[in-house]
Design goal:
binds nicotinamide-adenine-dinucleotide, 44% helix, 444 residues, alpha/beta, Rossmann fold, 5-stranded mixed sheet
Length: 444
Amino acid sequence: MSEELNPFKIAQQQLDNVAKLLDLKKGVHEYLRHTQRELTVNFPVKMDNGDIKIFTGYRIQYNNVRGPCKGGIRYHPDVTLDEVRALAAWMTWKSAVVGIPYGGAKGGVVCNPKEMSQNELERLTRRFTSEISIIIGPEKDIPAPDVYTNAQTMAWIMDTYSMIKGYSVPGVVTGKPISIGGSLGRNEATARGCMFVIREALKHLDYKVIPPEVWRKECEDDGSSICDGDEGTGYRIDGAKVAIQGFGNAGSIAAKLLSGKGAKVIAVSDTRGGILNKDGLDIEKVIEHKAKTGSVIGFEGTELLGHKQVLEVECDVLVPAALENQITNDNVDNVKAKIVAEAANGPTTPEADQILSDKKIMVLPDILANAGGVTVSYFEWVQGLQSFFWSERDVNVRLKEIMVKAFENVLEMSKRHGVDNRTGAYIVAVKRVADAIMHRGIFP
Ligand code: NAD
């Protein structure tokens, strides 16, 4: 039988695995296997050449029992209803695993932003926002960026929603530009959260980390300044070898932050392919190269890798930061990392997951490893509601507290039940959602 690649079936399977361990009531388990609300929209957009093109988009609210629904919007030619359902389910578990008061949602539009102009993308975003405006809102469902959407996309959504309401509603989205109520540190948050849990995992695996006192002393001695909120308590992970698939918001910033903490990022990739330099890449320069040429490939002094080869590089930490179903039955035997930190959502299939677990490779599951994004989205929403904005240092310090605590909770649960970290994370998350259901009761 061929491997299951439907993301929603995979998400349901992941839930089913823990339902037994948690002894979930049958009705609650069934409730949690389903999305709460699904909106499909088909809408016209005027293209630059005067043609009218019809696009399909989705907004799915998975569960709002712990708070308003929250989740990004993805623009990609391969977006499907089941993919968006899965991403909405994962958002529900993610918010729960880090203990922030949100439910889960996700949106997507089937389109190829690489072939569209900025004006076309703006018209598509504004019309899609108008179509889904009946279900989003700061107390109901709050979108954020995901693959091929960014702060500018959020600004268009915020402006369109505000025009419909007749007043400014910055709280309808997070991941906004700072000028309209965005949070400092949000752009880096997914990657920063991922860096924090990678560091904890390396420490846990007895990797030789440099303790904060030594690091601080070195900084004082050479006069370098560290002011990202990590000084005094953070560890350096000097020499840890890292490979990263995907070089967008999650991947490129993870590369930058991890190398800033002493790691040696030896391989990175994007849609055009990968690059390897066993002595370590100068990440700032790779970012510049990609900005200039559109890809990481062709960066000086590197060996060219195929798309999936980056996943098979000999390293301490592998960070999939692109799309779903990248580590599968076909290539899992070639994964040589000690830690797989899932910055992407759903990069590992259940069968591959089992093999990683058998091989004693530590997986930092997506609902934990990339939860930094939704956490700082929550901070942005809170700051907006209070009209009181925090320093970047405060944002980072609070993010670190939440990520380290979530890592410890997951590890403790995995040990207690003798299961892998994904199952441990699901136990923490699903229990929190199920408890909320039991306390609220079933209406009417
Ligand atoms: P992005 O649009 O900024 O970047 C996506 C990157 O993936 C690009 O570099 C693209 O070239 C690359 N890519 C796409 N297909 C690839 C392939 N087959 N091989 C190699 N690279 C490929 O998107 P992003 O926001 O960085 O999202 C990446 C992943 O992180 C997604 O799974 C997303 O759901 C997840 N995520 C993002 C956030 C966030 O805040 N942006 C939060 C949580 C999770």
